[in-house]
Amino acid sequence: MMDTPENETGDRGVAPAFHAKRRDKNKPRRRPSQAARHPAVTIGSGIFTFLLFALLGGGLALWYGEHAYNGEGPLTAEKTVLIPRGSGVRDMAEMLEREGVIDNWLVFVLGQRMMRPDASMKAGEYLFKPGQSMASVVEAIASGKVLVHQVTIPEGLTSQQVVQRLMANDMLTGTPTVPLEGTLLPETYRIHRGMSREELLKQMADAQQKLVKTLWEKRAPDLPVKNPQEMIILASIVEKETGEPDERPKVAAVFINRLNKKMRLQSDPTIIYGLVGGKGSLGRSITRADIVSPTAYNTYAVDGLPPGPIANPGREALAAVANPAQTKDLYFVADGTGGHAFAETLADHNKNVARWRAIEAQGGATPGGAAPTTPAAAPKPAAN
Question: Is the four-CA dihedral 195, 196, 199, 205 of positive or negative sign?
Answer without folding.
Answer: positive
